[in-house]
Amino acid sequence: MPNKVTDMHFHQEEEDTGVIRRSSWRTPRGHFVVYVGTKLERFVVPTRFLKSPLFQNLLEMAAEEFGYAEAHPNKIVLPCDVSTFRSLVMFLTSQDK
């Protein structure tokens, strides 16, 4: 399972986050895509995050704020900034260990 976040804007890699961030449109098996922040930055996250109550709350907040496919058709847009999302990912990844 991938353990890096690749930041395409700053050309940095962060270890042990459990999320892949890339410009490729191919999503690896066992992962799904979410968009975060005002610039709708694309993140590929493991499906195991769907079991987390914190991630489920974030998805519920997204549904309340954006509706289902109304504002952003065919995209899961999360209502938080990129740094908050990265913190959540690091927390969820630490819970797996």
Automatic annotation (TrEMBL):
Pfam families given in the database record: Auxin_inducible (PF02519)
Annotated transmembrane regions: none
Protein family: Belongs to the ARG7 family.
InterPro entries xref list: SAUR_fam
Gene this protein is translated from: LOC108846759
GO annotation (BP), single: response to auxin
Protein name, UniProt field: Auxin-induced protein 15A
Source organism of this protein record: Raphanus sativus (Radish)
Keywords linked to the UniProt accession: Developmental protein, Growth regulation
UniProt entry tagged with the keyword Lipid biosynthesis: no
Lineage: superkingdom: Eukaryota
Organism classification: Eukaryota, Viridiplantae, Streptophyta, Embryophyta, Tracheophyta
Keyword hit for Hydrolase: no
PANTHER family: AUXIN-INDUCED PROTEIN-LIKE-RELATED (PTHR31374), SAUR-LIKE AUXIN-RESPONSIVE PROTEIN FAMILY (PTHR31374:SF423)
